[in-house]
Structure formats: C-alpha cells, structure tokens
Design a protein that fits this description.
Layout (H helix, E strand, L loop, with lengths): L2 H21 L3 E7 L2 E12 L8 E9 L6 E9 L5 E10 L2 E10 L2 E8 L2 E8 L4 E3 L9 H6 L5 E7 L4 E11 L6 E7 L3 E5 L5 E6 L4 E5 L2
Parallel strand pairs: 9-10
Antiparallel strand pairs: 1-2, 1-15, 2-3, 3-4, 4-5, 5-6, 6-7, 7-8, 10-11, 11-12, 12-13, 13-14, 14-15
Length: 218
Amino acid sequence: MGLRAAALLLLLLHPSVLAAAQRAQATVLLVRQGGREIGREEFTLTQGRGRGAPGTTLTARASYPPTAPTTRLAASLERTPEGALAKFQLDVESPAGTTVILAAGSGARLIVRTVAKGSESGRELPGGPDVVLLDDSVYSLLAQVADLATPAGRPLTAIYPRTGKRVTLAARREAGTDPGVVRTTLTGDLSGVVVTDADGRVRRVELPAQGIVVQRAE
C-alpha cells in the first residue's frame, strides 16, 4: 500500500471513529509533574473499528495546561483483535501551527505520513506485533503496552511519531491489588508503572524519570 493510498484510507475512516467515541463514556486523566497539574486528558476505549471491523478504538483528547491550554492533542488508535496496529492518527494544535500525523500497519512495515503548514512528508518504518505507537503527552496510549505485557516480560519497541523517538522496553504484567486491576511494570528505555482496569483502560501511570504521575479523576 502506497503512502497516498494509506493516508486516503485513514481519512475516510476517521468520521466513524469519532462517532463511536462520542457514544462511549469518557474517562478523565489528571497529568501531574512534580506534584503540579500540567495537563488533562479525556479518552474512550470502545469495541470495534471503522466500517464495522473487529478490534478496538481508543480516542483521546489532551490539553496542556488544563486551563487556557496552549497545546491540544487529539489521538485515535485502532487495533485488530490480535492487538496489532490498524490505524493511528494524531492531531497537534500549538502556537507553531497544526500538525497531523497518520500511520497504518502494512504487514511488517509501518507507514507514517506527517502534514504540517507548508510541508508534507512520508516514511516507512519497521513494524510488527511488538511495535507500539506512543506520545509523550497522550498517556492513555500506554493501554496498548499493558495489553501486550506478559508475566515474564515482553520486549517491545515504542515509536513516538511526533518526535521520531524510538525506544525499547520490556512490559511485565503483575496482578493488581483490586479484582480486575492489572499492574504493568516497564523497564528499559521507558521505565515506570501502568495500571489498567478490567476493561483495559488506563487508571494510573507513574514515570519516575520524568516526574510524571497520571491519575484517573474520581
């Protein structure tokens, strides 16, 4: 699949993803750094993908700072029933302008297209079942890491399309203290803890190296 064809497919699927997200109840995350709230995120995790395909769809909106934000992010992640990437979109609004990043899985390859004011670029990256797409400011995306974690610790590669960063980590699943709660420990280039509920939604994230604690609003 070429870059232009992949991008067109992603854009056609986008409205149905938003409609599904609007029907689901949003979960709110408070993002704190050094004890101070720096951002807020709302996300939904629904069953099904665009055009009725099986799998899951995660839709998130984040604002930094939480009041009178100067940066807004909107992310959409579609995954197959096996947990593989089907489609990813990230819109970033900041004082520098708006950037749209589109990505789609194509076998062992990942097709990424970036559109910003006055520029457009595309690239292909190694993909596969052990590759996840993340962003430093959208923490609900870490749910996919928790889903792929194993008790022995599963090696994963995380790609950050907005910055081009690529890191390796191991995700080890542990039993949570409450029924249905799963605690995932991350080690490697990305270290910390991700806590998810019985439906696979992020409840808490701790990233000590960045001083970040993300907590679900009660």
